[in-house]
């Protein structure tokens, strides 16, 4: 049986660990609520932009805008949204492994794809495995603004418009609930399945100078807004996953403390019983 001092030390260290994970759980819970609120507030804006773009595209005289037309795929870009820190359960591993499987299934060489990585974990994962990482952004705040990802979003959209690659996909964790996040693949470019987000009667718009001229400006902004919306969704998923992981860690630590306390009490009782037996035996010998 383990030494009483060793058991006591393990109990103390495990209690300290549970205090840290409990604190991290509470912090993540607070961040998760705010991140979820940000993601939900962004949805009406996204739907309105989609309605406007769909209305303009349906009435545009020039249907050959490069962002609206599919072309032979020679090269594909993938924008993966991870986190800067771990301790979030399977939040990062699930999406990184899914993208890695996709790359190996769809492409025969690294010349056929490029990766844009958001988050230190995603960047380090693919760089370490020598995948073709074209650009990355790390150190994003817990509640990011569009300016935080503007550079990489515009670069990803701009390189598609320039013909550097022929498709752009996003991989991120979609927030379903606090305990559930789904790995999601979303095609950003080309925009081939554009339809109004709102059901019912579509609004009528008058354009100045023309619908085609507005599309030239609005389509890149729409694609960039899709990336930012996915980032907000991913942040809500990240904080929820970390909160759940820390709750599980806290519960496990409490279970360990309870089991160790039982072992400690039994060992202590056995030691006391042994001491009493020795004392009684010594007294009997003196008689």
Automatic annotation (TrEMBL):
Record's GO cellular component terms: plasma membrane; proton-transporting ATP synthase complex
Question: Source species, please?
Answer: Ureibacillus chungkukjangi
Question: Which InterPro entries does UniProt cross-reference here?
Answer: ATP_synth_F1_ATPase_gsu, ATP_synth_F1_gsu, ATP_synth_F1_gsu_CS
Provide this UniProt record's keywords sorted from A to Z. Answer: ATP synthesis, Cell membrane, CF(1), Hydrogen ion transport, Ion transport, Membrane, Transport
Q: Which GO terms describe its biological process?
A: proton motive force-driven plasma membrane ATP synthesis
The domain of life for this entry's organism is Bacteria
Q: What is the protein name given in its UniProt record?
A: ATP synthase gamma chain
- Provide the assembly information: F-type ATPases have 2 components, CF(1) - the catalytic core - and CF(0) - the membrane proton channel. CF(1) has five subunits: alpha(3), beta(3), gamma(1), delta(1), epsilon(1). CF(0) has three main subunits: a, b and c.
Does this UniProt record's set of keywords contain Membrane? yes
């Amino acid at each position: 049986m383990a030494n009483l001092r060793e058991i006591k030390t393990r109990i103390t260290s495990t209690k300290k660990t549970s205090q840290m994970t409990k604190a991290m759980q509470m912090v993540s819970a607070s961040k998760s609520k705010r991140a979820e609120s940000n993601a939900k507030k962004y949805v009406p804006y996204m739907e309105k932009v989609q309605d406007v773009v769909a209305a303009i595209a349906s009435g545009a005289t020039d249907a050959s805008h490069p962002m609206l037309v599919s072309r032979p795929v020679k090269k594909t870009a993938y924008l993966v949204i991870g986190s800067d820190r771990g301790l979030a359960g399977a939040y990062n591993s699930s999406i990184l492994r899914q993208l890695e499987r996709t790359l190996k299934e769809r492409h025969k060489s690294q010349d056929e794809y490029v990766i844009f990585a958001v988050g230190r974990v995603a960047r380090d994962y693919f760089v370490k495995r020598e995948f073709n990482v074209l650009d990355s952004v790390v150190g994003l705040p817990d509640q990011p603004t569009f300016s935080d990802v503007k550079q990489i979003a515009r670069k990803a959209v701009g390189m598609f418009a320039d013909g550097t690659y022929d498709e752009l996909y996003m991989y991120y964790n979609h927030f379903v609930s606090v305990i559930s996040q789904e790995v999601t693949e979303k095609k950003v470019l080309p925009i081939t399945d554009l339809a109004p987000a709102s059901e019912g009667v579509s609004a009528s718009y008058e354009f100045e100078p023309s619908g085609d001229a507005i599309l030239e400006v609005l389509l890149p902004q729409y694609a960039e807004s899709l990336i930012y919306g996915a980032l907000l969704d991913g942040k809500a998923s990240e904080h929820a996953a970390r909160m759940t992981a820390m709750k599980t860690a806290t519960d496990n630590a409490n279970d360990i403390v309870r089991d160790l306390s039982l072992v400690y009490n039994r060992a202590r009782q056995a030691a006391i019983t042994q001491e009493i037996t020795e004392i009684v035996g010594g007294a009997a010998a003196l008689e």
